[in-house]
Design brief:
Blueprint lengths: L4 E10 L2 E11 L4 E5 L6 H8 L7 E6 L2 E2 L4 H6 L1 E4 L11 H11 L4 H14 L15 H13 L5 E5 L7 H16 L3 E5 L3 H7 L2 E6 L2 E6 L1 H6 L3 E7 L16 E7 L2 E6 L2 H14 L4 E7 L3 H9 L12
Parallel strand pairs: 3-8, 3-9, 6-7, 7-8
Antiparallel strand pairs: 1-2, 1-4, 4-5, 9-10, 11-13, 11-14, 12-13
Helix pairs in contact: 3-4, 4-5
The protein binds adenosine-5'-triphosphate (ATP).
The site of adenosine-5'-triphosphate has 11 residues, from strand 2 and helix 1.
Organism: Haloplanus litoreus
Family: Belongs to the ABC transporter superfamily.
GO molecular function: ATP binding
Length: 316
Amino acid sequence: MVAAIEIDDLRKRYGDVTALDGVSLSVPEGSFFGLLGPNGAGKTTFINVLVGLVRKSGGDARVFGHDVETDYREARDRIGLAPQEFNVDRFFPIREVLEHKAGYHGIPASEARERADEVLKQVGIYEKRDTRFDWLSGGMKRRFLIARALVTDPDLLILDEPTAGVDVQLRHDLWDLITDLNENGTTILLTTHYIEEAERLCDEVAILDGGQVVTVSTPDELMDRGTDRITVTFREPIRSVPDLAAGNGQVEAVDVEDGRLVVSASRGGLVAPDLVRELDASGYEIVDLDVSRTSLEEVFVEMTRQGSAVTDGGRP
Ligand SMILES: Nc1ncnc2c1ncn2[C@@H]1O[C@H](COP(=O)(O)OP(=O)(O)OP(=O)(O)O)[C@@H](O)[C@H]1O
């Protein structure tokens, strides 16, 4: 099966700024792929190369097997893009904007109206169909950008920070909408600053930093790279650290805090059962156990911290 996105050694320079510095990535068809990275990491440049808004300085980029420059039309027709910026024609009612867009991508006029209505209903702003873009609320504008991306029925939907500045309700609505699309076969490429969003939605995430891929991984695998904290509370508070064999190799630190045992370990969820068994066998009476997982956010901050990024050029 051809990958939805296949990138090899992609480079982009703007004058003396290197925005993409040899990015290689493969996004499988049907996946929900997250692109994370701090401001200026190169995420928007990456997307702009895919949709033909920016010319690459080197390397290869293909969408469903079509080169984004030499096969521009074929590649572009497969993509729906909801950009970060509101770049919408402000003088026409939004339904007409959608009809024009569909027509531009070769959809006949009779179908274009139907398609426009369908996507406006899908994103929940059909009743605003005769309104101009400028007169929509901020949240409706975000919904409209997604409708515009969907009007051509794309196989690859690219969402550049779709939930920036939207309220919790709308964020959840948008999550439901894009999860449905993905379940029905649309490949999704999502950039976001909300790590929780990536954690919740994505099958796989790539972390970009300084124009390079720091890592590609599932959110779970990434979290496994962080340190979890296991806190054990006893009927009688303890004063000193017991001798422990559990989690050999995974345990990073063992301390006593306020009479409780605190164990820092990678994959704490796996260490905890052995720990409980061992303490129990040694006669400790446990009344509470808490395992707090490291967050993807902590791992992300650690990996993209200036100078401490581990560049492994791709898959772990
Ligand atoms: N048209 C341009 N001309 C010059 N430099 C640019 C241009 N577009 C982007 N850059 C630079 O390229 C680098 C990558 O920018 P890009 O917008 O791709 O990052 P990003 O990861 O999308 O950031 P953000 O999260 O802030 O949107 C930055 O240093 C930026 O200043």
